[in-house]
Amino acid sequence: MSDQIVSIWVYLAQTPLLWLTATIATYQVATAMARRLGAPPLLNPVLLSIIALVMILSVTRTPYATYFAGAQFVHFLLGPATVALAVPLYQAERKLRQVLLPGLAALVVGSATGIASAVLIGKAVGLSDLALRSLAPKSITTPIAMGIAEAIGGLPSLTAVLVILTGMVGAALAGEVLDMARVRDQSVRGFAMGLASHGLGTARALQLDPEAGAFAGLAMGLNGAMTAMLVPVMLRVLGL
Amino acid sequence: MVNALLALLAFQLAGEVLVRAVGAPVPGPVVGMLLLFLAIRIRGRVPEPLQRASQGLLGNLSLLFVPAGVGVIVHLQLLAADWWRLLIAIVASTLVTLLVTALVMQGMIQMRRRPQ
Question: Residue A227: pLDDT above 80?
Protein backbone atom coordinates (compact mmCIF):
# COMPACT_ATOMS: atom_id res chain seq x y z
CA MET A 1 0.00 0.00 0.00
CA SER A 2 2.62 2.54 1.06
CA ASP A 3 4.80 1.45 -1.86
CA GLN A 4 1.92 2.28 -4.12
CA ILE A 5 1.50 5.70 -2.56
CA VAL A 6 5.20 6.36 -2.97
CA SER A 7 5.15 5.38 -6.64
CA ILE A 8 2.10 7.58 -7.27
CA TRP A 9 3.88 10.46 -5.52
CA VAL A 10 7.02 9.89 -7.56
CA TYR A 11 4.95 10.07 -10.74
CA LEU A 12 3.09 13.21 -9.66
CA ALA A 13 6.24 14.93 -8.49
CA GLN A 14 7.70 14.56 -11.97
CA THR A 15 4.84 16.04 -13.98
CA PRO A 16 3.73 19.67 -14.08
CA LEU A 17 0.13 18.55 -13.56
CA LEU A 18 0.21 18.33 -9.77
CA TRP A 19 1.48 21.83 -8.94
CA LEU A 20 -0.52 23.48 -11.68
CA THR A 21 -3.69 21.92 -10.28
CA ALA A 22 -2.62 22.69 -6.71
CA THR A 23 -2.06 26.37 -7.55
CA ILE A 24 -5.48 26.85 -9.12
CA ALA A 25 -7.29 24.74 -6.50
CA THR A 26 -5.61 26.61 -3.63
CA TYR A 27 -6.57 29.92 -5.17
CA GLN A 28 -10.20 28.85 -5.56
CA VAL A 29 -10.35 27.66 -1.93
CA ALA A 30 -8.67 30.88 -0.77
CA THR A 31 -11.14 32.97 -2.79
CA ALA A 32 -14.10 31.13 -1.24
CA MET A 33 -12.57 31.51 2.24
CA ALA A 34 -11.90 35.24 1.78
CA ARG A 35 -15.47 35.71 0.56
CA ARG A 36 -16.89 33.87 3.57
CA LEU A 37 -14.79 36.07 5.90
CA GLY A 38 -16.37 39.13 4.27
CA ALA A 39 -13.40 39.81 1.92
CA PRO A 40 -11.12 41.52 4.48
CA PRO A 41 -8.50 43.50 2.51
CA LEU A 42 -5.52 42.09 4.41
CA LEU A 43 -6.55 38.45 4.01
CA ASN A 44 -6.85 38.51 0.23
CA PRO A 45 -6.88 35.31 -1.87
CA VAL A 46 -3.35 35.91 -3.16
CA LEU A 47 -1.85 36.14 0.33
CA LEU A 48 -3.87 33.15 1.60
CA SER A 49 -2.84 31.07 -1.44
CA ILE A 50 0.84 31.91 -1.03
CA ILE A 51 0.81 31.02 2.67
CA ALA A 52 -1.02 27.73 2.00
CA LEU A 53 1.27 26.73 -0.90
CA VAL A 54 4.44 27.63 1.04
CA MET A 55 3.24 25.38 3.87
CA ILE A 56 2.38 22.53 1.46
CA LEU A 57 5.78 22.80 -0.26
CA SER A 58 7.58 22.86 3.10
CA VAL A 59 5.72 19.82 4.44
CA THR A 60 6.25 17.80 1.25
CA ARG A 61 9.84 19.09 0.95
CA THR A 62 9.20 20.10 -2.63
CA PRO A 63 11.82 22.47 -4.08
CA TYR A 64 10.48 25.73 -5.53
CA ALA A 65 11.89 24.81 -8.95
CA THR A 66 9.74 21.65 -9.01
CA TYR A 67 6.69 23.66 -7.98
CA PHE A 68 7.36 26.32 -10.59
CA ALA A 69 7.74 23.74 -13.38
CA GLY A 70 3.99 23.21 -12.97
CA ALA A 71 2.88 26.65 -11.86
CA GLN A 72 4.70 28.36 -14.74
CA PHE A 73 1.67 27.80 -16.97
CA VAL A 74 -0.32 30.13 -14.73
CA HIS A 75 2.63 32.52 -14.46
CA PHE A 76 2.94 32.60 -18.26
CA LEU A 77 -0.58 34.03 -18.62
CA LEU A 78 0.64 37.31 -17.07
CA GLY A 79 1.93 38.27 -20.54
CA PRO A 80 -1.32 37.72 -22.50
CA ALA A 81 -3.27 39.29 -19.59
CA THR A 82 -1.14 42.43 -19.86
CA VAL A 83 -1.82 42.59 -23.60
CA ALA A 84 -5.55 42.13 -22.84
CA LEU A 85 -5.49 45.41 -20.89
CA ALA A 86 -5.69 47.08 -24.33
CA VAL A 87 -9.44 46.37 -24.29
CA PRO A 88 -10.39 48.38 -21.16
CA LEU A 89 -7.85 50.99 -22.26
CA TYR A 90 -9.67 51.39 -25.59
CA GLN A 91 -12.97 51.70 -23.76
CA ALA A 92 -11.52 54.51 -21.62
CA GLU A 93 -9.89 56.29 -24.57
CA ARG A 94 -11.95 59.47 -24.49
CA LYS A 95 -11.17 59.96 -20.80
CA LEU A 96 -7.53 59.15 -21.51
CA ARG A 97 -7.21 62.07 -23.92
CA GLN A 98 -8.71 64.43 -21.34
CA VAL A 99 -6.26 63.54 -18.59
CA LEU A 100 -3.12 62.87 -20.64
CA LEU A 101 -0.99 65.72 -19.28
CA PRO A 102 -1.98 65.33 -15.62
CA GLY A 103 -1.31 61.61 -16.01
CA LEU A 104 2.19 62.17 -17.41
CA ALA A 105 3.04 64.61 -14.62
CA ALA A 106 1.77 62.13 -12.02
CA LEU A 107 3.85 59.44 -13.72
CA VAL A 108 7.14 61.31 -13.36
CA VAL A 109 6.51 62.52 -9.80
CA GLY A 110 4.92 59.25 -8.65
CA SER A 111 7.64 57.08 -10.11
CA ALA A 112 10.41 59.11 -8.46
CA THR A 113 8.48 59.08 -5.17
CA GLY A 114 8.13 55.30 -5.33
CA ILE A 115 11.88 54.77 -5.67
CA ALA A 116 13.06 57.50 -3.28
CA SER A 117 10.58 56.67 -0.50
CA ALA A 118 11.46 52.97 -0.61
CA VAL A 119 15.20 53.62 -0.42
CA LEU A 120 15.01 56.41 2.19
CA ILE A 121 12.55 54.67 4.51
CA GLY A 122 14.43 51.40 4.09
CA LYS A 123 17.68 53.15 5.02
CA ALA A 124 16.05 54.80 8.04
CA VAL A 125 14.92 51.45 9.47
CA GLY A 126 18.37 49.94 8.86
CA LEU A 127 18.00 47.69 5.82
CA SER A 128 21.17 46.32 4.26
CA ASP A 129 22.56 47.65 1.00
CA LEU A 130 21.55 44.46 -0.79
CA ALA A 131 17.98 44.71 0.51
CA LEU A 132 17.74 48.38 -0.51
CA ARG A 133 18.91 47.60 -4.04
CA SER A 134 16.37 44.77 -4.24
CA LEU A 135 13.65 47.06 -2.88
CA ALA A 136 14.18 50.11 -5.12
CA PRO A 137 12.11 48.85 -8.11
CA LYS A 138 9.32 47.40 -5.90
CA SER A 139 6.39 49.32 -7.43
CA ILE A 140 6.64 47.88 -10.93
CA THR A 141 5.71 44.65 -12.61
CA THR A 142 7.86 41.61 -11.74
CA PRO A 143 9.85 40.99 -14.96
CA ILE A 144 11.13 44.59 -15.28
CA ALA A 145 11.71 44.89 -11.54
CA MET A 146 13.84 41.74 -11.57
CA GLY A 147 15.81 43.02 -14.56
CA ILE A 148 16.50 46.32 -12.77
CA ALA A 149 17.49 44.59 -9.54
CA GLU A 150 20.00 42.50 -11.43
CA ALA A 151 21.46 45.54 -13.17
CA ILE A 152 21.95 47.51 -9.93
CA GLY A 153 23.32 44.68 -7.81
CA GLY A 154 20.20 43.57 -5.97
CA LEU A 155 18.81 40.05 -5.63
CA PRO A 156 16.27 39.50 -8.45
CA SER A 157 14.44 36.64 -6.72
CA LEU A 158 14.10 38.73 -3.53
CA THR A 159 12.84 41.61 -5.66
CA ALA A 160 10.09 39.35 -7.06
CA VAL A 161 8.88 38.71 -3.51
CA LEU A 162 9.03 42.40 -2.53
CA VAL A 163 7.15 43.34 -5.71
CA ILE A 164 4.33 40.93 -4.86
CA LEU A 165 4.24 42.21 -1.26
CA THR A 166 3.98 45.77 -2.58
CA GLY A 167 1.16 44.69 -4.88
CA MET A 168 -0.73 43.08 -2.01
CA VAL A 169 -0.30 46.12 0.24
CA GLY A 170 -1.49 48.45 -2.53
CA ALA A 171 -4.43 46.23 -3.45
CA ALA A 172 -5.46 45.87 0.18
CA LEU A 173 -5.21 49.49 1.30
CA ALA A 174 -5.54 51.68 -1.81
CA GLY A 175 -9.34 51.84 -1.89
CA GLU A 176 -9.71 53.14 1.64
CA VAL A 177 -6.67 55.44 1.51
CA LEU A 178 -7.93 57.08 -1.67
CA ASP A 179 -11.40 57.42 -0.14
CA MET A 180 -9.86 59.16 2.87
CA ALA A 181 -7.89 61.51 0.60
CA ARG A 182 -11.18 62.22 -1.22
CA VAL A 183 -9.89 61.12 -4.58
CA ARG A 184 -13.07 60.24 -6.47
CA ASP A 185 -12.13 60.45 -10.16
CA GLN A 186 -11.90 56.81 -11.27
CA SER A 187 -9.12 57.60 -13.75
CA VAL A 188 -7.00 59.13 -10.96
CA ARG A 189 -7.74 56.31 -8.51
CA GLY A 190 -6.82 53.68 -11.08
CA PHE A 191 -3.70 55.47 -12.27
CA ALA A 192 -2.38 55.76 -8.71
CA MET A 193 -3.13 52.11 -7.93
CA GLY A 194 -1.41 50.82 -11.05
CA LEU A 195 1.58 53.11 -10.60
CA ALA A 196 2.15 52.29 -6.91
CA SER A 197 1.30 48.59 -6.98
CA HIS A 198 1.52 47.28 -10.60
CA GLY A 199 -0.54 44.24 -11.61
CA LEU A 200 -2.06 43.43 -8.24
CA GLY A 201 -3.13 47.05 -7.87
CA THR A 202 -4.53 46.79 -11.39
CA ALA A 203 -6.40 43.59 -10.54
CA ARG A 204 -7.98 45.37 -7.56
CA ALA A 205 -8.79 48.49 -9.61
CA LEU A 206 -10.51 46.29 -12.24
CA GLN A 207 -12.70 44.85 -9.48
CA LEU A 208 -13.67 48.30 -8.27
CA ASP A 209 -14.36 50.03 -11.60
CA PRO A 210 -13.62 49.32 -15.30
CA GLU A 211 -12.29 52.83 -15.95
CA ALA A 212 -10.04 52.63 -12.89
CA GLY A 213 -8.83 49.27 -14.19
CA ALA A 214 -7.93 50.68 -17.60
CA PHE A 215 -5.94 53.55 -16.10
CA ALA A 216 -4.25 51.19 -13.64
CA GLY A 217 -3.07 49.01 -16.50
CA LEU A 218 -1.74 52.01 -18.36
CA ALA A 219 0.04 53.39 -15.28
CA MET A 220 1.56 49.98 -14.57
CA GLY A 221 3.07 49.86 -18.05
CA LEU A 222 4.29 53.45 -18.06
CA ASN A 223 5.81 53.19 -14.59
CA GLY A 224 7.67 50.05 -15.61
CA ALA A 225 9.52 52.06 -18.26
CA MET A 226 9.87 55.19 -16.11
CA THR A 227 11.30 53.29 -13.12
CA ALA A 228 13.78 51.46 -15.33
CA MET A 229 15.12 54.84 -16.47
CA LEU A 230 15.02 56.54 -13.06
CA VAL A 231 16.43 53.89 -10.71
CA PRO A 232 20.11 54.04 -11.76
CA VAL A 233 20.12 57.85 -11.64
CA MET A 234 18.25 58.07 -8.35
CA LEU A 235 20.43 55.54 -6.57
CA ARG A 236 23.41 57.76 -7.35
CA VAL A 237 21.55 60.86 -6.11
CA LEU A 238 20.49 59.03 -2.93
CA GLY A 239 24.07 57.96 -2.34
CA LEU A 240 23.68 54.20 -2.66
CA MET B 1 -11.99 32.06 -28.94
CA VAL B 2 -8.88 30.73 -30.69
CA ASN B 3 -8.65 33.94 -32.73
CA ALA B 4 -8.74 36.04 -29.57
CA LEU B 5 -6.08 33.89 -27.94
CA LEU B 6 -3.99 34.09 -31.10
CA ALA B 7 -4.35 37.86 -31.15
CA LEU B 8 -3.18 38.20 -27.53
CA LEU B 9 -0.19 35.90 -28.10
CA ALA B 10 0.73 37.45 -31.45
CA PHE B 11 0.67 40.98 -30.03
CA GLN B 12 2.74 39.87 -27.05
CA LEU B 13 5.23 38.27 -29.43
CA ALA B 14 5.35 41.43 -31.56
CA GLY B 15 5.93 43.46 -28.38
CA GLU B 16 8.74 41.18 -27.21
CA VAL B 17 10.46 41.28 -30.60
CA LEU B 18 10.15 45.05 -30.86
CA VAL B 19 11.51 45.64 -27.33
CA ARG B 20 14.53 43.45 -28.05
CA ALA B 21 15.15 45.01 -31.44
CA VAL B 22 15.17 48.53 -29.99
CA GLY B 23 16.68 47.65 -26.60
CA ALA B 24 13.95 49.55 -24.72
CA PRO B 25 13.58 49.10 -20.94
CA VAL B 26 9.86 48.26 -21.29
CA PRO B 27 8.42 44.76 -20.93
CA GLY B 28 7.30 43.18 -24.21
CA PRO B 29 3.70 42.57 -23.07
CA VAL B 30 3.25 46.30 -22.30
CA VAL B 31 4.34 47.19 -25.84
CA GLY B 32 2.02 44.40 -27.03
CA MET B 33 -0.80 46.09 -25.10
CA LEU B 34 -0.12 49.42 -26.83
CA LEU B 35 0.06 47.73 -30.27
CA LEU B 36 -3.25 45.94 -29.67
CA PHE B 37 -4.76 49.22 -28.47
CA LEU B 38 -3.73 50.84 -31.79
CA ALA B 39 -5.08 47.88 -33.77
CA ILE B 40 -8.46 48.12 -32.01
CA ARG B 41 -8.53 51.87 -32.69
CA ILE B 42 -7.90 51.33 -36.38
CA ARG B 43 -10.66 48.71 -36.45
CA GLY B 44 -12.97 51.00 -34.53
CA ARG B 45 -14.44 48.39 -32.19
CA VAL B 46 -13.50 45.48 -29.94
CA PRO B 47 -14.34 42.09 -31.50
CA GLU B 48 -16.71 40.14 -29.25
CA PRO B 49 -14.41 37.10 -28.69
CA LEU B 50 -11.51 39.41 -27.74
CA GLN B 51 -13.79 41.22 -25.33
CA ARG B 52 -14.67 37.90 -23.67
CA ALA B 53 -11.08 36.61 -23.58
CA SER B 54 -9.90 39.90 -22.08
CA GLN B 55 -12.60 39.83 -19.43
CA GLY B 56 -11.82 36.22 -18.56
CA LEU B 57 -8.11 36.85 -18.10
CA LEU B 58 -8.42 40.19 -16.32
CA GLY B 59 -11.20 38.95 -14.04
CA ASN B 60 -8.72 36.47 -12.57
CA LEU B 61 -5.59 38.57 -12.83
CA SER B 62 -4.55 38.16 -9.21
CA LEU B 63 -4.35 34.36 -9.55
CA LEU B 64 -1.50 34.86 -12.03
CA PHE B 65 0.71 36.37 -9.31
CA VAL B 66 0.53 33.34 -7.03
CA PRO B 67 3.39 31.29 -8.61
CA ALA B 68 5.87 34.19 -8.32
CA GLY B 69 4.64 34.96 -4.81
CA VAL B 70 5.31 31.40 -3.65
CA GLY B 71 8.95 32.23 -4.47
CA VAL B 72 9.03 33.76 -0.99
CA ILE B 73 9.91 30.22 0.14
CA VAL B 74 13.41 30.66 -1.28
CA HIS B 75 14.03 33.73 0.90
CA LEU B 76 12.40 32.73 4.18
CA GLN B 77 15.71 32.98 6.09
CA LEU B 78 16.57 36.43 4.80
CA LEU B 79 13.04 37.59 5.47
CA ALA B 80 13.01 36.12 9.00
CA ALA B 81 15.77 38.54 9.98
CA ASP B 82 14.52 41.62 8.15
CA TRP B 83 10.76 41.14 7.77
CA TRP B 84 9.63 44.07 9.90
CA ARG B 85 12.08 46.49 8.26
CA LEU B 86 10.94 45.42 4.81
CA LEU B 87 7.30 45.59 5.84
CA ILE B 88 7.61 49.13 7.21
CA ALA B 89 9.45 50.29 4.09
CA ILE B 90 6.97 48.64 1.72
CA VAL B 91 3.79 49.76 3.48
CA ALA B 92 4.97 53.35 4.04
CA SER B 93 6.51 53.75 0.60
CA THR B 94 3.51 52.24 -1.22
CA LEU B 95 1.04 54.53 0.58
CA VAL B 96 3.19 57.63 0.00
CA THR B 97 3.56 56.75 -3.69
CA LEU B 98 -0.16 56.12 -4.05
CA LEU B 99 -1.12 59.42 -2.43
CA VAL B 100 1.50 61.58 -4.18
CA THR B 101 0.52 60.15 -7.58
CA ALA B 102 -3.21 60.61 -6.98
CA LEU B 103 -2.85 64.14 -5.58
CA VAL B 104 -0.55 65.36 -8.38
CA MET B 105 -2.90 64.03 -11.05
CA GLN B 106 -6.04 65.28 -9.32
CA GLY B 107 -4.46 68.67 -8.63
CA MET B 108 -3.50 69.12 -12.28
CA ILE B 109 -6.93 68.10 -13.52
CA GLN B 110 -8.54 70.67 -11.20
CA MET B 111 -6.04 73.38 -12.14
CA ARG B 112 -6.87 72.99 -15.82
CA ARG B 113 -10.61 73.07 -15.15
CA ARG B 114 -10.59 76.27 -13.11
CA PRO B 115 -9.56 78.92 -15.71
CA GLN B 116 -12.38 77.91 -18.06
Answer: yes
Q: Which positions in chain A touch B90 (Cβ < 8 Å)? A: 118, 135, 138, 162, 165-166, 169
Tell me: do B47 and B93 sit in the same domain.
no
A21 to chain B: closest CA residue: B67
- Nearest-neighbour CA in chain A from B21: distance (Å): 16
**In which domain, by residue range, is A27 found?**
2-76
Which residue pairs from B3-10 have beta carbons closer than 8 angstroms and sit at least 24 positions apart in sequence? B3/B47, B3/B49, B3/B50, B4/B47, B4/B49, B4/B50, B4/B52, B4/B53, B4/B54, B5/A80, B5/B53, B7/B36, B7/B50, B8/A80, B8/A83, B8/A84, B8/B32, B8/B36, B8/B50, B8/B53, B8/B54, B8/B57, B9/A80
Residues A155 and A229 in one domain: yes
Q: How many domains does chain B have?
A: 2
**B73 and B55, same structural domain?**
no
A110 to B36: CB separation less than 8 angstroms, yes or no: no
- Which residues 76-115 of B are in CB contact (within 8 Å) with A? 76, 78-79, 82, 84-109, 112
Q: Taking CB atoms and an 8 Å limit, are B98 and A170 in contact across chains?
A: yes
Model-wide pTM > 0.90: no
Give pLDDT tens digits for A109-134: 999 999 999 999 999 999 999 999 99
Q: Is residue A95 part of a domain?
A: no
